[in-house]
């Protein structure tokens, strides 16, 4: 009934207002959070699918908000992309992650997530060169993870930047593979070094829905057939690991091996691995 509709509108209005208020506050807080040292990187290992040896770590951003506690990237990255703060924040991530990786054995790689807005800033190549130079990390140890959305936006500028980065020896990974609109021509045009199979497919590999399972296997096979380093992400069970291994996946990553952890946890894990 009409009356109900109006009632519902009046009911939701304050909630919406509250939501926008919370969002504005978060945005304001974010502006000072870098200077206040509230951001931290956690690191999750990716391992050789056949041997289980650590190949490197992906950096994942965390925000320790003074009032709200731990805030996950899903909550603040979209905001930071909208208000442009992702550019200085992304620069902080690159510098911090490279500085950390400089302490690891030199055969380990560091993977860093990039947002579309970082490509639009035109500063990206300079920032990457700076982070490598300051840390002394060799370019081939750095892996930049981009999703298809990065490439969909203004693809000429992105193509140029990716080409320059690869020219430096930096590796480029396609993240969340299978969730977007990759066509064959697209995969050929952008010379990725690594393809990360989205965890939704990895999850289906051991699921009970037969069709979904077949589709997931097909996605893995397709990725493997492209001849790049293929990484299965979000591996939570041995069964998933075994299937990825059987299909020829090169690397695996997920809670089955390790959750993301602070830099101190990485140091411990590496000491353990060195003794083993
Ligand atoms: P992503 O790059 O796809 O990262 C993988 C996400 O899956 C991470 O969530 C990770 O903690 C989680 N994950 C890893 N293994 C498992 C597993 O076995 N099971 C499950 N259920 N989840 C797993 P997180 O840390 O919350 O990050 C979410 C997204 O935020 C990332 O997705 C990435 O797109 C973005 N992000 C994180 N750090 C950064 C950053 O420094 N810069 C940018 N631009 N984006 C970032
Ligand atoms: Ca990623
Ligand atoms: Ca991913
Ligand atoms: Ca993702």
Task: Give the topology, please.
Layout: H1 2-33, E1 39-48, E2 54-65, E3 69-71, H2 73-83, H3 86-101, E4 109-113, H4 116-120, H5 124-135, E5 142-146, H6 148-152, H7 155-168, E6 171-177, H8 184-189, E7 194-197, H9 199-205, H10 210-225, E8 229-232, H11 238-246, E9 251-253, H12 263-275
Parallel strand pairs: 2-4, 4-5, 5-6, 6-7, 7-8, 8-9
Antiparallel strand pairs: 1-2, 1-9, 2-3
The chain binds ligand C2E and calcium ion (3 copies).
The site of one calcium ion has 4 residues, from loops.
Characterise the protein shown here.
The chain is of the alpha/beta class and about 280 residues long. About 55% of the residues lie in helices and about 20% in strands. It is built from twelve helices and nine strands. It has helices spanning about 1-35, 75-85, 85-100, 115-120, 125-135, 150, 155-170, 185-190, 200-205, 210-225, 240-245, 265-275, and strands spanning about 40-50, 55-65, 70, 110-115, 140-145, 170-175, 195, 230, 250-255. It has an eight-stranded mixed barrel with strand order 1-2-4-5-6-7-8-9, surrounded by six helices. The relative contact order is 0.11. The mean pLDDT is about 90. The structure holds ligand C2E and calcium ion (3 copies).
Kindly list the characteristics that best describe this protein.
9 strands, 276 residues, alpha/beta, 12 helices, binds ligand C2E, EAL domain-containing protein
């Amino acid at each position: 009934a009409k009356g109900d509709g109006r009632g519902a509108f009046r009911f939701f209005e304050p909630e919406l207002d509250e939501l926008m208020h919370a969002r504005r506050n978060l945005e304001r807080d974010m502006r000072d959070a870098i200077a206040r040292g509230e951001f931290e990187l956690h690191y999750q290992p990716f391992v050789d699918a056949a041997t289980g040896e650590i190949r490197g770590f992906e950096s994942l951003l965390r925000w320790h908000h003074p009032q709200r506690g731990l805030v996950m990237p899903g909550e603040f990255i979209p905001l930071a992309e909208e208000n442009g703060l992702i550019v200085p924040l992304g620069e902080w991530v690159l510098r911090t992650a490279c500085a950390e990786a400089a302490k690891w054995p030199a055969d380990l790689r560091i993977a860093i997530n990039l947002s579309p807005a970082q490509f639009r800033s035109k500063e990206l190549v300079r920032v990457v060169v700076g982070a490598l130079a300051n840390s002394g990390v060799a370019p081939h140890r750095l892996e930049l993870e981009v999703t298809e959305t990065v490439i969909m936006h203004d693809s000429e500028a992105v193509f140029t930047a990716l080409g320059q980065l690869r020219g430096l020896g930096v590796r480029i990974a396609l993240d969340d593979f299978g969730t977007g609109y990759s066509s064959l021509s697209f995969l050929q045009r952008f010379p990725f070094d690594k393809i990360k199979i989205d965890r939704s497919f990895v999850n289906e590999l051991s699921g009970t829905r037969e069709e979904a399972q077949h589709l997931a296997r097909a996605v893995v096979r397709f990725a493997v057939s492209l001849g790049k380093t293929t990484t299965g992400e979000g591996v939570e069970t041995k069964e998933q690991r075994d299937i990825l291994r059987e299909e020829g996946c090169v690397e695996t990553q997920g809670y089955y091996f390790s959750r993301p952890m602070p830099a101190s946890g990485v140091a411990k894990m590496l000491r353990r691995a060195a003794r083993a």
